[in-house]
Amino acid sequence: MSYGVSAALQAAVYQHLLADTALGALVGGAIYDAVPPGALPVTYVSLGQEDVRDRSDKTGKGALHIFTISVVSSVAGFAGAKAVAAALSDALIDAPLTLSRGVLVSLTFDRARARRAGDGDMRRIDLTFRARVDDQ
To answer: Which InterPro entries match (predicted)?
Structure first.
């Protein structure tokens, strides 16, 4: 197994989301690797946790990256957050990401969870994706 592709995958996902016009129309540049301190936009996207499993075989090193990206919103109701989540999902599924290390074999949607957060005044949707990578 190699965890070596992890940083390259995260950077490619982040850059791809920043460049996506549909997502940008909904959140502007409010896409964060690390949520900044201070006042935040009413709706933003944040890269989250990652689990990685070995998928090496006789042909080479590989890994399955299971990662979460969250949509967080203080707008009443879930409709706005779900629109952002849909745009995010559309942007990533089968995205042709070029990595600085390794090769992306596939990128698929796994699941999502929508819920109220904080004191109930926040909405949060966690989208989980699966990326299969080869470390060449």
So the answer is: Gp17-like (IPR021508), Viral_Tail_Comp_sf (IPR053745)
